[in-house]
Amino acid sequence: MVDHQRSRYVGGAEGAPPLPPPGGYVRPGLVRGGLDAAAGLPAASGDVSYSAPPSAAKGTNAIGLAAISTTVVFALILLLLMLAGGTDALYGVTLLVLQVAVVGVIVAALLTRRGRMLGAIALALTLVLNVATVGAIGALQSAATHAYDGTKSEKQRHAQAYPGVKDQSPQEALSGPSLEEVQREGDALMAEVRRRVSDRFGYTWVQSGTVDVSPERNGYGGESMLQRYTSTMWTTAQPVQDDVRKREVMQVIDEVLATRGMDSLYPLNEAGTGISPDLMAKLYGSIDPARQHTWEYYSGTFPGPLRFYAYAYDLSNDPTGEFRVQREALAQQTGEPLEGIQLVVFARRVLPEADRAEFEQRLREYPGF
Fold it and tell me: What distance in Å separates the CA atoms of residue 59 and residue 269, rounded to the nearest whole number?
């Protein structure tokens, strides 16, 4: 039965829960706190929460740190090898095995919750700096600078310093004209051509470009002491678009060449030169000289090193305008006129006078070359 005055159950206890003590039940946390206080321990919080064992949290963080650390160290090794010119070492078995090991650590980090962020950073760094990418950059750098010392033996490095040019007798350079003689001869030749053409047709000339002297490759992966020479260019200030006039100018040039013991001009833009029709149309605008935007003639002091070139640029034979764009870009660089008759002198494998003694001395180190 129920006592309505006290509003509590006073009947039998069959099937009913036990009555709570006065003031209600004490929370387990409070009881535990009293016990801890009696034992001299700090009170525990009433809220109970679960945290992973310390060893598990530390293990997960360690994997992420290991991934990013090994990735950074490996990337630094790759960069140092590339800067040191060790392109061949970048593709060695050792580094490939290390790369696989680094990837394995990164994958392990990605599979863990706490290490996933560091693993993702390590993966991004690996995609940028790895054996393939750094090796490719190193190969391009070696190709640009011709620095292949890392893959060469002592014998090959000795050949790389050869002062001459492979398959050419050094006596040709020693017995032939020097760089300075070729330059003086070329300047005199172009001066005479300009004078004769101006006297005959009244053209004036514009000088453009600069003299360029650069070392020849020696055929063994290094630079020779022999030089390649390119003169400045001389172009008529007036366009020459009439084919008859072009041939008349070339004939006057031939007269100058004959007085200096040189062969007549040889046309490279006409049929019979050995150039395929497709290549000729690409180089000169057409296979028909009457429709070409460029005529190219050359002569030389055979077997001497001097080569003389005469060009005729004619923008009236440029229906697409592509050749004009090329000429305008070149004119911005060199200051030369867009069209007209142009003269230039080249020379290959010539020895400067000041280098003659050193050239002969260094040749003694290569008796079998």
Answer: 76
